[in-house]
Amino acid sequence: MNASTGSATARRMPLSLRHRFALLATLLGLLLSGLASFALLAVADDYEYVFANEILSGQAEDYGLRLANRLPAQLPQTQRLRGYRIDDPALPRVYAGFPLGVHEDPDNENAHVGVFDTAAGRLVFVIDLGDIEATERHLSLLVAAMLVLGTALSGWLGWLLAGIALRPVQALAEGVEALPVQPQPTRLAAGVSDDDLGRLARAIDGYQARLVDADAHEQAFLADASHELRTPLAVIQGVAEVLQDDDTASLAQRARHARLERGVAEMRRLLEAMLAAARRKPLQIETVDVEQLLREAADMALAGRPGIAVHVDAEGELQTASREAVLLIAGLARQLVQSRTDGTLHLDLEPECLLLRIEPEQMDAVSASMRADIGTGSALLDRLAARLGWRMAFDAPGRISIRLH
């Protein structure tokens, strides 16, 4: 995978609900911290203007009254505060052009200039607020730090609170994930609060109840279908056996009768496999003799094929559902010998594995299709194997291994 593909995959990955909540909390913290910082800086700037205006206007009023009443008064000329008459040659020209009011010096951000009309004429006062400006710069740094820390704190609190708030959701998700494949009633709503989450849990409980009802109807249908299909199959099989016993039939008729009997037997096996795979009841696990199990499966698979011999090499016992196991092994063996009229079917028990093979081996269309990665080629056999928990591997043409665990 190259870098562009990796970045495109990363862009497509959705954020979890907790990440989204934390991101929203971070953005909210950024917004609130930004508004608080803007308000604080605006108040500090207004405070500076009010402070300068009050000092300068107070100085102008005091000195104006003194000068108008011809009291001894000398305009201040200190480093922080300086006063000028409008006609004073020492007054900087830029200040002489200022209108009435308090203004900032465009050449010196620390200086504020106040122009006032008093009883003694127009007076100009200049005050140096460098200490306040330094404090404002420190305040700006503090506000920037507050903005960063406030945003980070909001994101962390959002992540923490999202985790606490989503614990019931996670518990509900774990409860749903723990549900078995077979439908069963649930009471998830009893373990959560009576809010939107409770509504979701009740919806899942209701859905599970509908699945249980649908499964019950399906099982009832399968039971009815099993009963109704077995009766006509038994009649057809009986007729096929009678036709096979007809000594007056020609060789061609006998061949057709044999094909009919094999077809009926195959249909019966498929019906049994379908019902065994679709059954919802737990498997009846029992201890069975492996050799007897394999011989029963071989007899079922080779019915009507006298040209194929059977060799069983198996000793010991096996814990399994015998009925389903026989149907699966017989179905797999049937596929191995489907296109054969002679040969030997071997059924061997190896450690943790059953081995089915046909000799002599030959490559044919059936074996090739069984070696594909889509399974046995039979949905019924695949479902039976999944129900038993067995895994099948098609090692070579005419060879199937069944992992029992």
From TrEMBL:
GO molecular-function term, one example from the UniProt record: phosphorelay sensor kinase activity
Top EC group: transferase
Domain HAMP intervals: 163-216
Alphabetic keyword roster: Kinase, Membrane, Phosphoprotein, Transferase, Transmembrane, Transmembrane helix, Two-component regulatory system
Cellular compartments per GO CC: plasma membrane
Reactions catalysed, as given in the entry: ATP + protein L-histidine = ADP + protein N-phospho-L-histidine
EC number annotated for this UniProt entry: 2.7.13.3
SMART domains documented for this protein: HisKA
Transmembrane intervals: 139-162
Protein name: histidine kinase
Pfam families, alphabetized: HisKA
